[in-house]
Amino acid sequence: MDLSAKIRNYIRFHNWILTVIVVVLMIAAWHLAIVAFDVQPFVLPKPADVLASVIYGAGDFLPAALSTTKSILGGFLLAVGLGVGLALVLLSSRTLERAFFPLLVGAQLVPKVALAPLLTVWLGIGRPTEIMVAFLLSFFPIVVNTMIGIKGVELGKLDVARSMGAGPMGIFIKVTLPSALPSIFAGMKVASTLAVVGAIVGEFIGARDGLGNVLLTANSNFDTATMFAAILYLTVIGMVLFFALELIEHFSIPWHHSKRGLNLTPGGA
Amino acid sequence: MPMLRIDGRCDGQFDGQPASVHDRMTAMPAQATARPSVIIDDVSQVYPTRNGDYLALDRVSLTIAQGEFVSLLGPSGCGKSTLLKAVSGLTRHTSGRIEIGGHPVVKPQTDIGIVFQEPFLLEWRSVLRNVMLQAEFRKLDKAVYTEKARDLLERVGLGGFLDSLPHELSGGMRQRAAICRAMLHDPSLLLMDEPFGALDAMTRDNLNLLLQDIWLRSPKTVLFVTHGVTEAILLSDRVVVMSPRPGRIAEVITIDLPRPRTLKLRATPEFGRYAHQIHEVFRSLGVDS
């Protein structure tokens, strides 16, 4: 094999190389477009200016990012706990499920971002409201996916377990829950991206810190480079959360992953 | 097999008291030393549907002796799987009485082994740990039964796949693992619901012989649901031919062929006569088979 064939072969099995090349090309195009058309910095900053803002503004960004991360995680973990819990309660009885599931679907139709101002009336400005908006946005996909996962367990598996004298708790732990895990993880991944959105919306309506606050302040100063940097920080937080979930999923349900390979596609936003 | 007795209909004489089981025993021919393993007495199953009640089983009675291999054979919709599920206790029959080993079936039976058409293995467990699920739920000694599970898997040719996950195996191998799981606790009754129905013909032949081999080594009562005439004759002491809508026992045919039976046996005139006899029953019922 000559060198170019070797490189081509390497790239075929390492798709991320192509992604990196595309990103580099896009950044180059971005820079060239600004130079060529003489775009004003407050409309679109140069990539280098954004990078400078990311690095030199780190002292301001990192505490803000930490604050935002707390709100994201707070809302997300609350949604996981209550979402899985509610799903289990609803599935414990046909009547409960039939009575409350339509309500749950109906509640999902309420644009939750619109509730944010109302929440400030009840919870005040700051962390509780941020957590609450993140929670409200990420709650539904977790409930629904958990229910789908648990209802999706093959009835034959339950019959087999019953014939072994297994009790309801044993069946749940050894058969139903593991069967539902892939679906629960799918719900959590969708929810993780929504929790980021929720936390930022919570910060937009008047928080004193967090990346949402940084964004709004920079916006009023026409400091576009800082806004870009803040968005970059936010994206990284969302990505870290998402990939952390991927990693946990990879190790907790390897039997599922082994069939489809590591899949890093975000479920939604 | 004279030790077995089939009642076409219920005569009402055994209702209620457990003592009636013994009455029935004594009513059997003298050489009947085996105790009845399963008694199905006047069992009906009705399913409510949108268009009214659907009669899936209509007063079916059948007695199976201990160690006997009985096939329920019939076209789809004849209630054979319904009957097997009722015997397993996983579903509750509408009327009539089912007893296993002298005890009435009123809840899911736990002293049996079940194999379905699909293996229903847990995807996240290795083959060995899937078989061991039986021991775990029954709280049986782990060391002893791990050894047993290995032996069983070895015997069905899965000795080299103990640590494989189900999706790494072929359909036939998965079904073999499911059979091992159903047999780990050495149940006296094995219920099999079209266990080889989803497999290709060659795999099916192999597993038929394997099942016969297992059954000959450790005799247990088997209730085997199938729609394969050949398979039913090859494996059974008796073939119970069922008719559809409502599910009834149309004919019970005793298969008097020496064991171990081989695939070559299928080409013999004796085998052909049994097959012909069964097809005649189907034809008289207006069922294509």
Notes on the structure:
The complex is a heterodimer of chains A (269) and B (289). In chain A, helix 9 packs parallel to helix 10. Chain A is flat and about 75 Å long. Chain A is built from twelve helices and no strands. In chain A, 81% of the residues lie in helices and 0% in strands. Chain A is mostly helical and 269 residues long. The longest helix of chain A is centred in the C-terminal third of the chain and has 37 residues. Chain A folds into two domains: 39 residues; 221 residues, MetI-like fold (Orthogonal Bundle). The two termini of chain A are 44 Å apart. Chain B is α/β, with parallel strands linked by helices and 289 residues long. Chain B has a domain of 61 residues. Chain B contains eight helices and ten strands. In chain B, the strands form two sheets. In chain B, strands 6-7-8-3-9-10 form a six-stranded mixed beta sheet, with helices on both faces. Chain B has a four-stranded antiparallel beta sheet with strand order 2-1-4-5, with helices on one face. In chain B, a hairpin with a 4-residue loop joins strand 9 and strand 10. The radius of gyration of chain B is 19 Å and the shape is globular. The interface between A and B is medium-sized, with 21 and 22 residues.
Beta strands of chain B, count = 10
Query: What is the tally of helical segments of chain B?
Result: 8
Give the chain pair forming the largest contact, with residue counts: A-B, 21 and 22 residues
The count of domains of chain A is 2
Unreliable runs of chain A = 261-269
Q: Write the CATH homologous superfamily of the largest domain in chain A.
A: MetI-like
> What spatial form of chain B do the alpha-carbon principal axes imply?
globular
| Principal-axes shape call of chain A | flat
Order of helices and strands of chain B: HEEEHEEEHHHEHEHEEH
Instruction: Give, in spatial order, the strands making up the sheet with the most strands of chain B.
Output: 6-7-8-3-9-10
Supply the helix-strand structural class of chain B: alpha/beta
Helix share, percent of chain B: 25-40%
Distinct helical segment count of chain A: 12
**Beta-strand residue fraction of chain B:** 15-25%
Major pleated sheet of chain B: 6 strands, mixed
CATH class of the largest domain in chain A: Mainly Alpha
In terms of quaternary structure, the protein is: heterodimer
The rounded distance between the terminal residues' Cα atoms of chain B is 26 Å
Main location (chain A): membrane
InterPro entries (chain A): MetI-like (IPR000515), MetI-like_sf (IPR035906)
Protein name (chain A): ABC transporter permease
Transmembrane segments (chain A): 16-37, 72-91, 103-125, 131-150, 184-205, 225-248
